[in-house]
Amino acid sequence: MHRILIIFFVFPAWLVVGLMHAAAQDESLMVVEAHSGRILIASNAAEKRPVASLAKIATGAVAVDWALASGTDLGKVSLVAPQTIAMVGGPNPMNLQPGDRLTLRDALYSALLGSDNLAALSVADHIGREMLQRRGKSGDPVAEFVAEMNRLAKTLGMTRTRFANPHGLDRKGVRHYSTAADMARLSIYAMRRNAFNFIVRQPDRQVMVTGLSGLRSYRVRNTNELIGREGILGVKTGTTQAAGPCLATCMDREPLVREKPDGTKGVTPRRLIVVVLNSPDRFNRTLGLLSQGWAVYDAWLAAGAPIDKRSRELLSVPEPGS
After folding, report:
1. Domains of the chain
2. Which of 2, 95, 129, 297 could serve as a FRET partner for 146 with CA atoms 20 to 30 Å apart?
3. What confidence category does residue 322 fall into, taking pLDDT thresholds of 50, 70 and 90?
C-alpha cells in the first residue's frame, strides 16, 4: 500500500517541494522549470547513483558544442566505427561493426534515440581524436572526450557527477555517478541547443551505414514512450541493473503572455524538466510529476513568483564561458 507524503516550505508565499510515494524511497527525482530555474518537486535529488544511458545526454551535448565551436556540419562529417565497439554490449539498432562508416548526425540519432552504446562510443572516438589533434596532444581519444564531458559537468555546477564513459554502461571497478539534480541541470543545458533538441524530439529516424557489404538503412526508434504526447520534447531513457529504470523528460507549454502595469506585454516561456532515477514505472511516474509540477509552477506564478532562499529554491545552469 502506498501513502503520499507532502512537504511544504512556508515563506511569504509557499512552495510544494515534495510529493512522492513512500514505497519508492530509493527513487530519486527532480522537477524544475527550466527558464526560471524554479525547483518544484524533489526527493533524494542530491543522492549519488548510477544514471545509465542518461550519460548520453552529456555525450550529445559535448558533440553538439564541439560542432558549433569547430564549425562542423554533423550531417556532412563521416566517422569510422572503431575496433573497440566490439567490446561494448547493449542495444545495437544499426548492427554496427568495426570499420563501418556513418555521419556524426546519424550516430547521434542512434545513440540518443535508440540508446545505441556502440554509436555513442564511435562519436566519442571520432570527436576525441579531433580534440587531441587540435590541442596538439596524443592519447586515448575516448578518454579525452570523457574528460570533456566532465569539464562540461563542472562548468554547469554538477558537483556530484562523474562520467567514466560516453554510454553509461556499468563497468566493474569503475565509478561513475550523478544525481537527479545534476541530470536536471544537464538536461536544461542540452535542450538549449537546437541541434540536440531537434534530435531527441524525433519519434524515429532513418539512418544510413556503409560497411563491407555496401550501404545499409535502418529506422531507429526513440526509446522514450512519451514522445508524441503534446509538448513532450525528449530527452533520454536509461536502464542498467545498477541504475534501475531512469528517465529525463522535457515538456514545453505555450509562452504565457501577460499585461504589465505599464500596459506593455510580458512573455514568460514555460518548460519543465523531470528527472526520475531508479523509478520502476518511469513513464507513468513522469506523467504524474509533469502534472504536479505544472500545478505547483502555476500557483507560484499566481502568487507573484516569490523567492525566499535562492540557493534552495533555484537551480542555476550557466552557459560555459559566461
Report:
1. 4-313 (3.40.710.10)
2. 95
3. low
